[in-house]
């Protein structure tokens, strides 16, 4: 996979499909490498007429690491935020949005369809708010507005994600990855355990960097409620969400669609906070239909 300088840092990325087709930028979530976009979905989007670009966010995978940068503890940061203070963070979600725009710049791409999942959806939302002229369309997947009055994650879903693995030994890392996937996954679409284990092993062997997750989480908390900002989004928007998401509840998707003028919302029963292979064609069809309607090739 190639690496490129974007927004003054190095980002790992790959591309799929015909470069002559409309570009589509995929933005992944908290502590998640770009390989969490199933290759079946990536190829499905390419087959539906897009030049698909995915990348590792800063501080994860094979992209730039902010070694030594200190993030405030999650509990302390949330408490201070509720009291009206904003502790300093190593970087913001707006910085991460600028990374994606920098990647498009480095690739010579003026405008793109942007698809973001979870934290990636938050980043994609900020791309639409702060760089709206660069987006043909926005697709926000199992994400939210940041409004703390919305239903929060189930404890059994958030704890494995925010608890570090017991060691950096491969066996512990794989076991930790399996716990996370089981905690946040789709109750209606449980993966084959051995196939899932193999996917976790491949990601563990590609990169493990728990420190980055803490700094990314600090950026999420720091960004706060985007509801008012989302009212400025002009890009045609589609919101996709699982009705059984234990990490980002479906109300987060509904709130996102309600905040963005003209946004469309599609929810699916049995879908949690992952991208199950059984839903790949459904998700790809929804994204492609929306993007083609927003900007016919």
TrEMBL record:
Gene3D superfamilies (alphabetical): alpha/beta hydrolase
tRNA processing is among the record's keywords: no
GO MF terms held by the record: hydrolase activity
Lineage: Bacteria, Pseudomonadati, Pseudomonadota, Alphaproteobacteria, Sphingomonadales
Natural source organism: Altererythrobacter litoralis
Residues passing through the membrane, by range: none
Keyword NADP: no
Keywords carried by this UniProt record: Hydrolase
Pfam families per the UniProt record, alphabetical: Abhydrolase_6
Residue ranges of every copy of the AB hydrolase-1 domain listed in the record: 29-278
SUPFAM superfamilies, per database record: alpha/beta-Hydrolases
InterPro entries listed in its UniProt record: AB_hydrolase, AB_hydrolase_1, AB_hydrolase_fold
Annotated PANTHER family: AB HYDROLASE-1 DOMAIN-CONTAINING PROTEIN, HYDROLASE, ALPHA/BETA FOLD FAMILY PROTEIN
Protein name, entry field: Alpha/beta fold hydrolase
